Amino acid sequence: MKQQSKTQAENPQDALFPAAENKPRAAVLLPLPVEKSYDYLVPDGMTLKSGDFVEVPFGPRRVTGIVQTVAPQDGDAPPAFKMKNVLRKIETAPPLTGAMLKFLDWVAQYTLSPPGLVLKMALSAPEALTPEQPEILYKKPQQTPQKKLTEKRKKILDILEGGAALSAAELAEKAGCGAGVIRAMLQQNMLEAVEKMPVFPCENPLYHGAELSEEQRRAADELLQHGGTDKHSVTLLDGVTGAGKTEVYFEEIAAALESDEGAQVLVLLPEIALTAQFTERFTERFGQKPALWHSVAGQAQRRKIWRGIAEGKTRVVVGARSALFLPFRNLSLIVLDEEHDASYKQEEGGPVYHARDMAIVRGKMENCPVILVSATPSLETVVNVQNGKYNAVRLSSRYAAAALPEIEMIDMRRNPPPERASFISTPLRRALADTLAAGEQALLFLNRRGYAPLTLCRTCGHRMQCPSCTAWLVKHRKFDRLQCHHCGYGCRLPQHCPECEDEDSMAFCGPGVERLEEEVQHFLPEARTLVLSSDVLGSEAALSDAMQKIHAHEADVIIGTQLVAKGHHFPLLTCVGVVDADLGLEGGDLRAAERSYQLLHQVAGRAGRAEHAGRVYLQSFQPENPVMRALAEGGRDAFFAAEIEARARSKMPPFGRLAALVLSAKNETVLEETCRALLRAAPRYDDTAILGPAPAPLAIIRGRHRRRFLIKAPKNTDLQKLLRLWLATVKIPSAIQLKIDIDPYSFL
Question: What does the pLDDT read at residue 230?
């Protein structure tokens, strides 16, 4: 007894917590900007495993996290008396799979992002951790008590005649009464309440098949051979615009769903604008709408989709890049449509990643095939096909009798617009008039929103600039305002010049899509015009309505930005005019030529997709540019070969590696000091170049000054390790925001 008392006196915490040291520890990752998981004690009677959702104390808060590992106490762990218990296991939440946990960890390691922020992308609908409650519906009982009925009660029973069952809200709205009437009828047994279990979107899609051309059938068979089941592979479905690539990969979706009754499929699209037409085609083939996941979806929709995916009940999801982080139970196929599109790069608001690359990684971890679809594949994908890393399936002709459009180059040096302050050349004006006379539709493309990109004073030359960004304010006719497209700042057009105070001296320079509409209405007053751009169409419903108007031929001339450049099928659209084909060649971007070719090729592909022949007119001040020549001559593969050779010579991606560090701060002095400290600590390798710090092309955004380092290294370089070691040597002040971009795609 004396010995025991002595031990207790020497180790007072052991006496107070005699059993705690034997409790297992759970490493819990929280959806917060944290770099590591936190250890918690597992209470007696609670069983946890990797992937389980738990609620834990974190400071004064209760936070939901994910169990990464569960292990007994070891020597490196903190003493038990310093640890907190897991508060509860969220039994109602399906755990994340091992493949999903591995994927999240890989993304964090590759992008050098805090693992907690990557987890936050996967927990994008936290309310879905609690299952939806059954909906209460009301119906007419078999025997209604014989009571005198008021007019409202009689109307309610008439509505429910024939076995109908409605919610209280629906019933009250149809009957024009309050919920109190329904409650009173229920209490008097004049109504019967029944439970309706929630139905998840796309639970039971059944493929109805399609009439494929001989080339489409061959391509579908090749896809099936490359993909198979329970096997990872990457295949490029490379087909000209209008070849029917969607119907081909629908065959692969059907095969994946039929291979396993629990199989799930993810289809990624670059723009929400493409979902309406895709949904219509999918529903026609599979009898159900796919689940749609994107930023515009409401919370109720996101909750239902997330839960349906986690439970394995939702079979097909169509979404934007964030859909990659949904908790699939049995992901059996990933399709990335328009795989070349720059919209797949996530650059703001969290970890910086490219959805194409992450989709391939997730496919590998889920052991499922990945299909990349494009008429103008990215150079990275083309090189991977050439090196044998990816398979390729080719569609060389358009579906049915449709022919590829003829492309005509309009040299603007020889064919200037007929009037001052106009932007559409005479040949293009004639083509538009001929198209309308034939009862067909035309598209004018200009990748510039608003009315005019620059407003200046005719007297002193003052340019209207955003007060918070190094960017000109864009005139928008619809809102009658000047707006910044980077921070959202807006103001009315001043009546006096802010510099010289001259009155009514402000002039609008250059065209936007709204100005093109004004010009078309001037020389084709009978034309029905429709502008398609993201600021004019502020919602999915507005976009869907605009697409219906085009299909119903309620518009003759569509004037749009890149919103209309890809994926759309307008049967009566035969004429496409690109107003400023040179626009994307500016800026000296590594991928400027590649992106310009892809965008203009996609725009041209909107013409003549049905039985009417298509014509494309490219207005250019440099028709001799390799991009313009390739478009006019149909030399896609030769253009890609030249671009690949140039990249290989300069050891630029995909033959070398790039990473960018972008630092920003309100205080320019603090920013400069931090950049100098980073430069002094920069690693020195013979084969690695660190360029900068230099002001970013947009040197100020939202009042924050921006500086950029660019790291260029050989392809086999472990850039992540290099950056970790480098950044560990310099303390970044809290006032500095640091963005790490592995494999940058834009250089703003």
Answer: 63
